[in-house]
């Protein structure tokens, strides 16, 4: 069902400080910075590696407000791993398949994700405590 681990999302208080840490410690490079109002985050994608089924990233997330999903997570648990995102060929199809298995979908339809992707979230309580994101890469530019 999954092509790769697309990214691991890390919740943090200070995006710029965390970017500097990942760059200087691991030699990673920021490939995208975005504000996603719908998800309530300011975020950066840092490239980890390329594989036969696409690339993988670390996604650093700073909340836009305390009552956003990441803001609430930080208040409750502090900084750390927030979610794991798997690459899928077709996010709507994966949602249908997983919804049919009784996994709660947090999105009724795919939403806008990083770098032009389409995303959807699965409830952490139905995935062993792991907030899970499905990611469909954008079609290649011609
Ligand atoms: N990982 C694991 N468990 C989590 C979690 C997370 N990231 N966030 C919340 N939970 C758990 C809580 O600990 C809580 O468990 P208990 O009931 O045992 O205390 C339970 O889920 C409910 O959490 P809550 O604090 O009451 O928060 P909400 O139910 O209001 O929201 C969730 C939780 C997952 C539904 C919400 O965060 C959500 O819809 N997330 C998807 C969107 C998102 O996170 N976007 C930001 C990332 C954007 C991107 O990747 O591009
Ligand atoms: Co993500």
UniProtKB/TrEMBL annotation:
Domain VOC: 4-137
Catalytic activity, EC: 5.1.99.1
InterPro entries on file: Glyas_Bleomycin-R_OHBP_Dase, MeMalonyl-CoA_epimerase, MMCE/EMCE_epimerase, VOC_core
UniProt xrefs under PROSITE patterns: VOC
GO annotation, biological process: L-methylmalonyl-CoA metabolic process
Signal peptide positions (record): none
Cited CDD domains: MMCE
SUPFAM superfamilies, sorted: Glyoxalase/Bleomycin resistance protein/Dihydroxybiphenyl dioxygenase
Superkingdom classification of source: Bacteria
GO molecular function: metal ion binding; methylmalonyl-CoA epimerase activity
Root EC class: isomerase
UniProt keywords, alphabetically: Isomerase, Metal-binding
Family annotation (NCBIfam families): metmalonyl_epim
Similarity-based family: Belongs to the methylmalonyl-CoA epimerase family.
Name of this chain's protein: Methylmalonyl-CoA epimerase
Native source organism of the sequence: Spongiactinospora rosea
């Amino acid at each position: 069902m999954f092509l790769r681990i697309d990214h691991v999302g890390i919740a943090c208080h200070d995006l710029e400080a965390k970017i500097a840490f990942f760059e200087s410690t691991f030699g990673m490079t920021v490939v995208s910075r975005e504000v996603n109002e719908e998800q309530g985050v300011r975020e950066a994608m840092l490239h980890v590696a390329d594989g036969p089924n696409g690339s993988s990233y670390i996604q650093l997330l700073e909340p836009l407000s305390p009552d956003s999903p990441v803001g609430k997570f930080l208040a409750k648990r502090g900084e750390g791993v927030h979610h794991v995102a798997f690459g899928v060929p077709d996010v709507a199809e994966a949602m249908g398949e997983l919804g049919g298995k009784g996994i709660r979908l947090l999105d009724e339809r795919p939403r806008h994700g990083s770098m032009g992707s389409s995303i959807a979230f699965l409830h952490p309580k139905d995935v062993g405590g792991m907030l899970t994101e499905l990611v469909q890469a954008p079609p290649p530019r011609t």
